[in-house]
Amino acid sequence: MLQLHSSLIDFQGQGLMFLGPSGIGKTTQAELWNRYRDALIINGDIVFVQEKEDCFLGWGTPWHGSSPYCENASVPVKALVVLKQAPENSIRELTGFEKVTAVSNSVFYPQWLENGMELCLETLDHLLTRLPVYELRCRPDEEAVKLTEETIFH
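Given the sequence above, the corresponding structure tokens read:
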């Protein structure tokens, strides 16, 4: 299981995780999906990701940072979206090493656990091999939601 600094929504039974540093807009994007697409916000700050045989499950946690969202729920993760603030909305799928760099900054590495780093990196490798990662440069508006939905869910 991985612990990531991200928000997690359930959109029609599929999970979408928004990653990035504090203040980038993770909770804001989740709230936009809730407002415009009726998505459930599972967590706004810390998400557990569990590797299963056929999917990765995103889990809400009791920790929610400055956001009020912390549902005791899980959803199969469809994709990870790394956020960047920008004057215009654009999205692209990341590949190779840029995928690793973009996501690894949001992982909490369990250095307190013997072999924790190895287990974490192995699970992270599986996650990045099996799930797409996108970079969303965006404004906090409905157009960013629409662009992301069209790219990932259609």
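The chain has a mean pLDDT of 93. Try to locate this feature in the token string yourself.
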